[in-house]
Universal stress protein uspa-like protein
Amino acid sequence: MESSDEMSVRLLHVFDEGEHQSTIDNLAIDGDPSLDELAARKSAVSAAKALLQEADFTTDIEGVKSDKPGKAILSTAEEHDVDRLYVYSRKRSPVGKAVFGSSNQYLLFNADVPIVVLPADAAAEYAPNRESLPEIEK
């Protein structure tokens, strides 16, 4: 197994149009911040980055906008030649999954690399407080 010195981790957050705009509105940002900057402000991404950096992993954060998150994840994975995926699950009812689909299900059926699915609250205890998040230039 590779050591953390030999591996880097790409943290990806996929925004749909509504979440992209609501993130900008909620953070009261003027202008047009990059998707990468917005992704860095998401609590799950911040928590994952803090945990990985604590374990001495090099991390890169990327944000993408897509209404098809599963396809966006696989496209990004292929672009960066990743060797495995770690994704978190959202709590959704069976009806919600049937109506809205499941990105994780899409990934499980279509990915060419191993996938680890984590529970949605797996990193909750590591979530940094909002004051420690990086500032986005306005």
About this structure: The beta strands are 8-15, 58-65, 85-88, 115-118.
